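Help! Submission page says 'invalid entity' but I think these are all valid:
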Amino acid sequence: MKIRYFARLREAFGESEEIKLTAETEVSEVAALLKERGGQWLDELSRPYRVAINGKMAAMDAKVSDSDELAIFPPVTGG
Amino acid sequence: MKIRYFARLREAFGESEEIKLTAETEVSEVAALLKERGGQWLDELSRPYRVAINGKMAAMDAKVSDSDELAIFPPVTGG
Amino acid sequence: MKVVIQQSDFDVAREMAEIRKSHPEIGAMVNFVGLVRDFGEAGRVREMMLEHYPGMTERCLEALLVEANERWKIVDATVVHRVGSLLPGDQIVLVLVASHHRKEAFRAAEFLMDRLKTEAPFWKKEHTVEGWRWVDAKASDEAASSEWM
Amino acid sequence: MKVVIQQSDFDVAREMAEIRKSHPEIGAMVNFVGLVRDFGEAGRVREMMLEHYPGMTERCLEALLVEANERWKIVDATVVHRVGSLLPGDQIVLVLVASHHRKEAFRAAEFLMDRLKTEAPFWKKEHTVEGWRWVDAKASDEAASSEWM
């Protein structure tokens, strides 16, 4: 599954990465995996963030599978 | 005192006229005098209208004297 | 703050630029533009004539700007209202409010339009297939205006 | 209805003219324009960078226009949002709503701005005397947005 990062998270983690999902997984579990990496992963994901699945805002208990695009980003500040 | 008319009332009565006031008079009394002329005066002033004294909206019980400018016009429809 | 009554058309972008150039602290601008609709109560509109009370109209609009400025923290505002002959699609009125934040600009612009509709001495006459007729004041405008009291 | 994300500036008058020419029934247009303020939370702003999520941003704004159209009787609407490098005083966003009557246009424009602020994937970074910093989301924007629920 492709994970894309934006804004502050893009600067910390890079634009995107691929992780392998063998089954449907809750977004919160993916986030927990990322935080286990420690360091800035733990720091940044301890602050407020939002997620989108295939370009639509999603809740933390939404499920993703390997063909989805998951985006993780800070609360939006446009306008 | 100068009386000015606008819009539908201007078309019916002309742009303005002078009437002599010897003492302070209530706007409602001036209006009653005009209506006594009958015909279109009675017709037009039986429909809703507004008044302004020296360019400020006024109530029918406001007082005018000979040096004032009284304006009589239909409810406004700008914007 | 600026009030203009004119026969000629106005350019919204130019009016905005005039305010922006002197106020770098502005974060929000709300514009309202009223247009001559092609249909009125008496059918298709061919032309519109707008009459005003010179002097009183300007003072009335200036007083509304002062009140808007007292009620909301606005930075600047412009009202332009056209008079004379107008055609369907023509711009009639511009209310432009600039403020630090958007809520104040939205509130003040809506207030100015609602009160202008019931207080500023302008009168509209429409030319339809039935000839010229004076436009009647609307009860809905009175209701909208009185909500700001 | 039109959504555009672009680096270049926009011309409010031209966007209005584009809508007016195809809709003679329009009586009211409300524009909101957001500008880069010269002062932010960290002091004087020298420059701003705006980032977005291509694809998602457009779809999000289109969905907001569909919702505005369902909730109010609007005739047409345009949203233009800039990305990339902006300077103080620059225009950031235009929300333009055209309708028969003014109340619908005011409501829809304010709704679109409030929801854009909390839902559309844009992020701002400011350059101040302390260097570059990401702008924090505001609780007041969340509150304004949730009032439309």
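Support: the input was valid. A stray whitespace character was the problem, and the output above is from the cleaned input. Chain B has a mean pLDDT of 97.
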